[in-house]
Structure formats: C-alpha cells, structure tokens
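User: Can you model how pyridoxal-5'-phosphate sits in this protein?
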Amino acid sequence: MELPFAESYKIKTVEKIHRSTREQREKWIKEAKYNLFNLRSDQVYIDLLTDSGTGAMSDKQWSEMMVGDESYAGASSYYKLKNAIKDITGFEYFLPTHQGRAAENVLFSAMIKEGDIVPGNSHFDTTKGHIEFRKAKAVDCTIDEAKHTELDYPFKGNVDTEKLENVLKSYPREKIPLIIVTITNNTSGGQPVSIENMKEVKKVAGKYGIPVFFDSARFAENAYFIKKREKGYGDKSIREIVKEMFSYADGMTMSSKKDAIVNMGGFIGFRHKEHFEKATMYNILFEGFINYGGMSGRDMNALAQGLYEGTEFDYLETRIKQVAYLGNKLRKHGIATQYPFGGHAVFIDAKKFLPHVPKEEYIAQTLAVEIYLEGGVRAVEIGTLLADRDPVTRENRYPELELVRLAIPRRTYTDNHMDYVAAAVINVFERRNSIKHGFKIVKEAPILRHFTVELEKV
Ligand SMILES: *Cc1c(COP(=O)(O)O)cnc(C)c1O
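Assistant: Here's the modeled complex, given as structure tokens:
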C-alpha cells in the first residue's frame, strides 16, 4: 500500500474552539448586522476570515520569545533578524516595522509623491490605499489570464510585460518611482509569479532605470509553486529559489503575519544603501528606532525563526496541499472556484453559486452569511462590498468577480476541519435554488466600508 501524505508536524498545544446551533448563529449574525467582521471569535467555529497573523507558532518560535533582547538599541534580536533576512532574501539592509502596511507607509513616504504612477500586478488593497493616499496612481498590469477563474494556467499572478512597458513609455521617468510585484498575487487569488516573469520585469525596469520592489507577504508559497511548476526548478531547494527570486528585486516589503508565521510584524528589505537611508527617517518617525521599528525583541526573534520555518519544503507542502484538499472537495461537487488553487485560500465563484440573487443584493456577502449560518464557518466577501462606491458618482462598483474567500490559517486546522468546512459549503450548494435574496445596506463608511457596513435582509 502506498503511504499517504500526512502533516510534517504534530500538535503540542491546543486551543478550544466553540460549536453553536443554527438558532444561536441566526441571532448572532442578525445582531452583527450581517457583517462577519462584527462577530465575536467565540461565535465562530472555524475561522477562515484571513490567514494573516492567525497561524500557529512552533515550539522553537515560542522558545525564541523567551530569549528576546529588549534593549532599545543594538539588541541581539535585531541582529538575529538582520542575519536571517540577509541569509534568506539576500538583502543587505532592512528596517523592521509593526506589520506589512507600515512597511508600505515608510517606503512610500520615502519614494512616492503626488501625481506619481506605480505600475504592478493587482496591488493589494493596503498597497493601493497607501499609493492613492499620496495622490499617486496604481496601474494594474496583471496578465488577462488572471480574470478567468477556471482557466488552468500555472502563473496567473504574472505581470504582463507589454502592458508594463506601455506604462513606462507613456510617462516621464521621474513620474514612476518604483514598480511593485506582489508575490503571490493576493488580489488575483494567491496566484504565483514565475521566475521568468520576475526576470523579464527586472529587465524592462532596468531599461528605464526604475527600481523593482516585491510585496512579499507570501514569497515562500510563491517559491513552492515555482519549484512545482516552472521548468528547471524541480530540483532546487525552496531557499535557493527564494534567493534567486529576490535577486530580481531592489527591495521588498513584508507582512510577516503571512509566510513568516508570526502573529504580528513586518519589515522592508533594501539592496541599495541610498533607498535604506532615505526610508530611515520615516521609520523612526512612524515606527520606532531602526533597531526595533514597532516590534519587541521577542517578536523579532520569533520572526527570524519563522522565516526559516516558512521556507522549509515540508511545511509548505503540508500547507499548500491542505488548501488544495479543501478546494478539490468543493470542485468535485461542481462548485466553481478559482483554479488552480492559490497558496493560502480557496476562492468560490459566488455568481455561479447563487444565480438567483441580484447583484444589487451583494451576492458574495449573501453566500458568506449562508456558510456561517450553515456551520459557523467564517469566510470573507471579496465582491461589491469590498469594491466600495465610485468616488465621483457614488454608485456601487460591481466587480466582474464576486468571490467568497476561505483563507486557511497556517498550521492551525486539521483536514477534519477542512472536511467540516466542505460539508457546510456543500449543504448550502444543495439548497442554492431556494436562496433568492440577499441584503441591502443600512449604514456604510465612505471608504473601506466592508469592515463596518451594516446590512438588513431584503
Ligand atoms: C497582508 C498583506 C499586506 C499588508 O500587510 P499587513 O500586515 O496586513 O499590514 C500587503 N500586501 C499583501 C500582498 C498582503 O497580503
């Protein structure tokens, strides 16, 4: 008998989670104004809201917490992290920050000014937010293949280098401070970028003298997909691939809450001293002295250890296989999902799932609420609520795709939990024809409304 695949770790500490009845959930979600962000965590049985900061630290990370050096300046924890970043990414200079968007805030304060153009592959929402906050413009140059959820294409996160070069040609050099390549491409569904594409982007950027920064939250998952899918990389180790990936960048921003498997933290990596020096002042102003930048010594220690664990093949294989395990269960039942599955989540195509709900009644949100009611599973809407209103007309922006994201926290749930999630989604699917109506908004914020929106049943 062939030995089956099994997890590459065992469990040392456990945390109780809470079951509930459908009756309780109906009451709670109504009190939460049908916004899943308003639920208390103990009203949720399996929480797939996000994979950000929700992972389980290892015994080695916890032991690193105990030996953190809390000195203000020159702490050994700072040097431990500096060495780990140099070792894994190759970047000589770095600044610690308290999370990924703080890294964006510091870097963009140094590099982006009003009227600038920042091309990239579907910028993440906080990245775009920090660009637009500075009255600059994020231009999406993702390949068109990314828009087709069911199209089997290995690197749906890639930058379309023709689109990119058109942008670079259309504006004067001083209007384009940097190019941002997001690995993996979160917005397009956790889809990877190939090494070949990184190389091409660097070449095009070099022609125009523009630096390339990687938004690197899921860089290790990206490396795993390169190993599995890109010609010539099957025999390379994850760390070798990661080194090569970053050799095509001038720097990186990192949300360590993702692939570095810590609950809080971030950093910026730089190849060039002048970029590092320019950003230093903003780091001190916004985050803290450059030896800690918003993190305690113990957090920097756990992060350094997490960078090594997050780039181990066995860990990555366990994680990415779990995502595919859940995804395949849904697909086998005829549920349309983004395919191939990305590294961190399964994205359900809500328009195909609930054909009777009109788009004005928030299709993906309707599905996310139904999944919660069915099994106490919390997912998140990536659809019209997230897309906000047009800033000029104040009309709803209806995105082409209405998605429900089931994000899988790292090393947190077992495959039994995935079976449970799949059963809950499948039960909703079986009664999909009886779901004809969704929600209307009773209260919303002018931007980023999805976090606080209040809804009522139609
Ligand atoms: C999460 C994330 C960020 C922002 O990081 P935070 O730690 O949440 O502030 C930026 N870019 C990408 C691609 C991300 O996934």
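A couple of observations from the model: Residues 52, 99-101, 124, 126-127, 182, 186, 215, 217, 255, 257-258, 266 surround pyridoxal-5'-phosphate (CB under 6 Å). Residues 90 and 206 are 19 Å apart (CA to CA).
User: Helpful, thanks.
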